[in-house]
From TrEMBL:
GO biological process: translation
Entry keyword Ribosomal protein: yes
Pfam family for this entry, one: Ribosomal_S20p
Gene Ontology terms, MF aspect: small ribosomal subunit rRNA binding; structural constituent of ribosome
Name of this protein: Small ribosomal subunit protein bS20
Function of the protein: Binds directly to 16S ribosomal RNA.
The organism of origin for this protein: Candidatus Gallitreponema excrementavium
This protein's UniProt keywords: Ribonucleoprotein, Ribosomal protein, RNA-binding, rRNA-binding
Keyword NAD appears in the UniProt entry: no
Length: 91
């Protein structure tokens, strides 16, 4: 006799797939944030600006997909922009 999949089993599979996808997006955002901070500390303005754009794009994407909240994305972008401005606008 064939065994049936329960809806709970299917739900568990789906949530596991989503968890792994969400984890990948968060990891990418954290990596980009570290690269941005490193480029700011190395005083490389062009690289920092490029990394800031990439980070903002990744945070917006994560926010749009519901992986992080809209306010969390805005807060992180604001803090990174503030760091960039404090480092490079004094010159």
């Amino acid at each position: 006799m064939a065994t049936k999949q329960t809806s709970a089993q299917k739900r568990h599979r789906q949530s596991e797939d989503r968890r792994l996808r969400n984890k990948a997006v968060k990891s990418t955002a954290r990596t980009l944030a570290k690269k941005f901070v490193a480029s700011v500390h190395s005083k490389d303005s062009e690289l920092a600006q490029t990394n800031l754009r990439l980070l903002a794009k990744e945070l917006d994407t994560a926010s749009r997909k519901g992986i992080i909240s809209k306010n969390a994305a805005a807060r992180k972008k604001s803090r990174m922009q503030k760091l960039y401005n404090a480092t490079f606008s004094a010159k």
